[in-house]
Amino acid sequence: MLLLTGFICTQKLQAQTVEGDWYTPLRNKLKHVTISKDSIVFRKCSFDSLRDYGYPDMAFKIERKIKTTYIVSSVTDTVRAYYLFSFITDNAGDKNYMNIESFTNQFSTIRDAEKTITEFENNPLKITFLTKQEMDTIRKKKPISSMTTIDFKNFAAKTMHVDSMNAEYTQKKYKFAYLYSESSSRLLLAELGFNSLVKGDQFDAMYDTFYENPETREILIKMGTQSK
């Protein structure tokens, strides 16, 4: 199974079921998904207070659950549509992830959606989501402004390794494809001990610093070329 990133906690968290609140970082905010017994709701919220911004981005009713895959529905223009959504919690490995293909394909009936579950579950590309406690842990890590040249080289190597592993799958079109580029690098940086929950301009400033460094400029250029 290929993961966007493997986030490793520095301390063991209490086990959490699928139902609850989950977060993954975007460029300037967090993607927040709430899973309950009968619904799945997506919102955006702030890095610092986890305060939600306005109305939900998307909301779905859970129609059926088969193993780790949900068949959900939404109503748009009075026509009911069905989608597949998969979210897996791995309490033993402290990883929680969503199938990147979730909500990409629309079905007219529950039966049609159910027929594609096997193929859907075989997609190895996942988006890592974290708990509120894990977000709090990241926020206490070192500031990215303190990164050394060695730190950046380690970060670049890990980023290019993950990108190369997932290259075959990131070329496809998914509704949540943008989460790959926006969250994976931040979670990798957090894994290396840095607070990556910062606005995009601060992240860009970190890249600019290492672009100006002759020792890391070519590495940065290679990172950008590989991600295209």
Keywords:
2 domains; 7 helices; alpha+beta; 9-stranded mixed β-sheet; 228 residues; two-stranded parallel sheet; 11 strands; disordered N terminus
3D architecture notes:
The protein contains seven helices and eleven strands. The protein is globular and about 55 Å long. The protein folds into two domains: 2-133, no CATH class; 140-226, no CATH class. The strands form two sheets. The chain has a nine-stranded mixed beta sheet with strand order 1-9-8-7-6-5-4-3-2. The protein has a two-stranded parallel sheet with strand order 10-11. The relative contact order is 0.17. The chain has 228 residues and is of the alpha+beta class.
Outline of the structure:
The chain is an alpha+beta fold and 228 residues long. It is built from seven helices and eleven strands. The chain has helices at 110-115, 117-121, 132-139, 149-170, 178-191, 200-211, 217-226, and strands at residues 2-3, 20-25, 30-35, 39-45, 58-66, 69-76, 79-90, 95-99, 125-128, 142-143, 194-195.
